[in-house]
Design a protein that fits this description.
The chain has 342 residues and is α/β, with parallel strands linked by helices. The protein has helices spanning 19-22, 77-80, 101-106, 131-145, 161-170, 189-194, 204-208, 220-225, 227-238, 241-244, 247-255, 264-274, 281-288, 293-300, and strands at 2-3, 6-7, 28-29, 37-46, 52-60, 66-73, 110-115, 150-157, 177-181, 195-196, 199-200.
């Protein structure tokens, strides 16, 4: 990408990249389009525990080695690459967060969009931003870097879920991960999503959960705590008046007493039909130990911040391009430049 006479590939490691230096210049322009695109849908990426993750892979139709741009999400991959003509950008295409493969590939990048485990056609059970999900992405980065059409350098792109994954995986320091473009992604699920200013905020889940593709989960928290302690914590959550005031949360917590294996999207639709709200991550949260209204209660026997993890990754590698525009406090971190091309 040309940046007012300075190219990213010419920046030296250790230089600090400021957003204004990259984009906000009168001479900014995109790099030249040189390649046609080769497309491989349902491209399998294996990870360390044997699970196979599904992806859509787009790469230049030419010999050579190219850097990879990886996007990771729990959404429909078809939706991420839906046609943009004749509508183009805008609210109706707001769900397309992986970026345009045509743009990247024509300029000499491989573009991979991958479903996390337990979603889409990827195997396994969903582990919302959990250790297994992050290890999967680490493994995928290193596997992609070893492919004959990759130059050994991988970057990540995308807002929202894509960004939340990026920042957490960066803390694991994958050797082949060289840069991030991580914008509009929260880092503290408790403060930034579920309890705004300490006040329960549940209705975002209504819109978000139905977007998760072919969701499959299991009750990891129940497995960890055991039946007796698990039931005690669910009952404590149900007795919280703030939670009890939301019918959907009550129903979701009651679902915790039933089997949630393969509850999936059909179960969510059934619950949606009977409830005005659908913050079903209360169910998914109880299954995956994410920080949601239900697991806030499950983790602290009621309201408040007690015994809850912050959700903020510790990132001090100093190896990543940091171009973030996050609206969440504490979601940016210091970085230095390393490029995909060089």
């Amino acid at each position: 990408m040309s940046t007012g006479g300075r190219c990213l590939e010419k920046l030296t490691a250790g230089s600090v990249v400021r957003y204004s230096e990259i984009m906000l210049t009168q001479t900014w322009q995109t790099s030249e389009r040189k390649y046609r695109m080769r497309e491989e849908r349902d491209f399998i990426i294996p990870v360390s525990d044997g699970c196979k993750l599904n992806s859509y892979l787009f790469r230049p139709d030419a010999d050579g080695e190219f850097p990879v741009i990886l996007g990771v999400c729990a959404y429909s991959l078809d939706d991420q690459v839906a046609p943009v003509m004749p509508v183009g950008a805008g609210g109706i295409r707001g769900h397309m967060e992986a970026g345009d493969p045509n743009f990247y590939v024509s300029r000499g990048y491989v573009h991979a969009i991958m479903n996390v485990r337990g979603t889409g056609k990827s195997e396994g059970y969903y582990d919302f931003l959990g250790p297994r999900e992050l290890q999967d992405v680490y493994d995928a980065i290193e596997w992609l870097a070893r492919q004959p059409w990759c130059n050994g350098r991988v970057g990540m792109f995308g807002p929202s879920y894509f960004t939340m994954v990026q920042k957490r995986v960066a803390a694991l320091n994958p050797p082949s991960l060289k840069c991030l473009f991580a914008m509009y992604g929260l880092t503290d699920l408790y403060r930034d999503l579920d309890y705004h200013g300490g006040i329960l905020h549940h209705n975002f889940r209504t819109r978000w959960i139905p977007k998760l593709a072919n969701l499959r989960s299991k009750n990891r928290m129940k497995e960890k705590l055991g039946e007796e302690e698990y039931r005690r914590r669910v009952q404590a959550a149900l007795s919280d008046p703030e939670v009890a005031a939301v019918p959907a949360l009550v129903e979701a917590l009651n679902c915790c007493f039933r089997s949630t294996r393969n509850f999936g999207r059909n179960g969510m639709k059934r619950l949606a039909a009977s409830l005005k709200f659908l913050p079903i991550l209360a169910v998914v949260g109880a299954c995956t130990e994410s920080i949601s209204p239900a697991t806030c209660a499950l983790g602290s026997s009621g309201r408040g911040r007690k015994n809850l993890p912050s959700g903020r990754p510790s990132i001090s590698t100093g190896r990543f391009i940091n171009i973030t525009m996050s609206r969440s406090a504490g979601s940016t971190f210091g970085s230095r430049t390393t490029t995909l091309e060089s």
